[in-house]
Design brief:
7 strands, 239 residues, Rossmann fold, alpha/beta, binds NADP nicotinamide-adenine-dinucleotide phosphate
């Protein structure tokens, strides 16, 4: 795909890799609708990235609100080419201590939110003559289970299954589906970015470069999943 002049939707665009995805897409000439719940943070992103970034205050667990926004924003002459299902959260605790609301937030955001966005945009993408691309941001936790990660693992294994089934379902409609399985990335996902991350995590802009590479593949060439991790994940002080 030539990204120039394409229309993209990035969920979770108010922080972390969502900002870098948006920046990388805008650098390539796309217009980006950036969705997240925090209006103030989105406003700051808009100031940083400029008018090609369209901030949209949206809770992706709210199916009706997504539907209203899509109907208001897109039409036969203006349809999205790219959907990046990136919004997500992780809450980590022993299974008997994991609060119900944290389990539900992970399943609702990471898994159901991905489904809600996708199911409402697929009909428009099917109508498009040109190839469209959906990229779902799972995690290594979509492939490997670990202690204290039951809820996060369940949600991301769900994204993995959803992505594989979707890829097979829509490939003949000219829609590419790719699932990303990243290891640790230096964002505020784990808490305070400055204290809870280290230099041996992947950097958001590196992951964004992979996103661009995957989008720019030729139309009949699909990378349907991609695992990425730091070569040496240990913090410099632990070497
Ligand atoms: N960082 C890592 O090491 C890592 C590794 C593998 C995979 N991932 C995945 O990468 C994705 C992005 O994470 P990140 O590291 O960039 O974390 P982050 O900095 O915490 O960003 C998460 C984004 O998701 C948005 N979000 C959360 N709940 C939402 C909701 N209900 N509706 C709309 N937006 C919502 C947040 O915005 P608001 O709070 O403003 O809504 C924020 O923009 C997640 O899916 C995460 O699971 C991260």
């Amino acid at each position: 795909m030539d990204i120039n002049a394409k229309t993209a939707i990035v969920t979770g665009a108010s922080s972390g890799i969502g900002i870098d995805f948006s920046q990388a897409l805008i650098n390539k000439g796309a217009t980006v609708y950036g969705l997240a719940r925090s209006t103030d943070k989105l406003k700051r992103v808009r100031q940083e990235l400029g008018k090609q970034f369209k901030p949209v205050t949206m809770d992706i667990t709210d199916h009706d609100a997504i539907e209203k926004w899509i109907n208001k924003t897109f039409s036969k002459d203006h349809q999205p080419d790219i959907l990046i299902n990136n919004a997500g959260l992780g809450r980590f605790a022993d299974v008997e201590k994991l609060p119900l609301d944290e389990w539900e937030a992970m399943i609702q955001t990471n898994l159901s939110g991905t489904f809600y966005m996708t199911r409402q945009l697929i009909p428009m993408m099917k109508e498009k003559e040109s190839v469209c691309h959906i990229i779902n941001i799972a995690s290594i936790a979509g492939k490997v289970g670990n202690p204290k990660m039951t809820g996060y693992n369940a949600s991301k294994f769900g994204v993995r299954g959803f992505s594989e089934a979707l890829f097979k379902e829509v490939r003949y409609d000219g829609i590419k589906v790719t699932c990303f399985y990243p290891g640790s990335i230096a964002t505020s996902f784990f808490g305070d970015k400055d204290t809870d991350t280290h230099d041996n995590m992947m950097q958001p802009e590196e992951v964004a470069q992979v996103l661009i590479n995957v989008l720019e593949t030729p139309d009949n060439f699909l990378i349907n999943d991609i695992t990425m991790r730091p070569l040496n994940p240990k913090a410099p002080e632990d070497q």
